[in-house]
Amino acid sequence: MPIKFKFQNMDKGAWVLLRQVYNLVLKCEDQVFSEHKLTTEQHTLLMAVKNISGPVRITDIAQWLDRTPNSVSMLVDRMVKAGLVKRVRDRKDRRTVFVSMTAKAEKAYAPATAAGWALIQEILSPLSNEDKRALISLLETLRDKTYDYLGSGEVTEEVRRNETQVVQLTKRAAKSKQRPGLKTKGQGGRKKRAVR
What is the pLDDT of residue 150? Predict the structure, then answer.
């Protein structure tokens, strides 16, 4: 049974609720993406690789995900071992390494993204459009305040996605689920811990 915290102090109540929702959403995402043999963290990195234009470096991914290059590099190492991404050295500057998705990752990414989008829609379904706009505004305010606290500076890139791209991806994923004989192989071997 989930715990519903109630605090007299509004700041504590808001903070605990924000953390609780974040953790519960991650659990939901873990459940959805595990059906496609991905962790939430792996899907997030693949999403970054897919959405960053041009050749993708670890520093680009780190910036996109608001993480350190070292943590992204360690995740990339694990994903290389899992056969989801590959590292390719730049021919002009051998110190530069690019990250790209493998065919295995491409095959898992589309249906996992469609399932993730369905989850997002389900979770947000109780909110009206007006509520969603208010939620976005409030979360942007909190995000910007954390950037200020960390001294992250100005937002360097604004990413906009066309909703029709998401709808098309969802339809393609639904079609691929209907095809007989199309099954994702298990990773096999010993069970490994999911890393956040």
Answer: 83
Q: Which of 166, 164, 77 is nearest to 114 (CA)?
A: 166
What does the pLDDT read at residue 183? Answer: 39
Under 8 Å CB-to-CB from 90, ≥6 apart: which residues? 55, 96, 97, 98
Q: 165 and 9 in contact (C-beta within 8 Å)?
A: no
- The rounded distance, in Å, linking the Cα atoms of 112 and 33 is 6
46-72 burial, b at 16+ Cβ within 10 Å, e below that, comes to bbbbeebeeebbbebbbbbbebeeeeb
| Alpha helix (H) residue ranges in 96-152 | 103-124, 129-150
Which residue type sits at 34? S
* pLDDT for residue 188 is more than 60: no
Q: Is 73 a member of any domain?
A: yes
Confidence (pTM): 0.73
Q: How many domains does the chain have?
A: 1
* pLDDT reported for residue 1: 60
Per the CB < 8 A criterion, the answer to whether 140 and 91 are in contact is no
State pLDDT tens for residues 61-92: 999 998 999 999 999 999 999 999 999 988 88
187, part of any domain? no
Domain that holds residue 125: 10-178
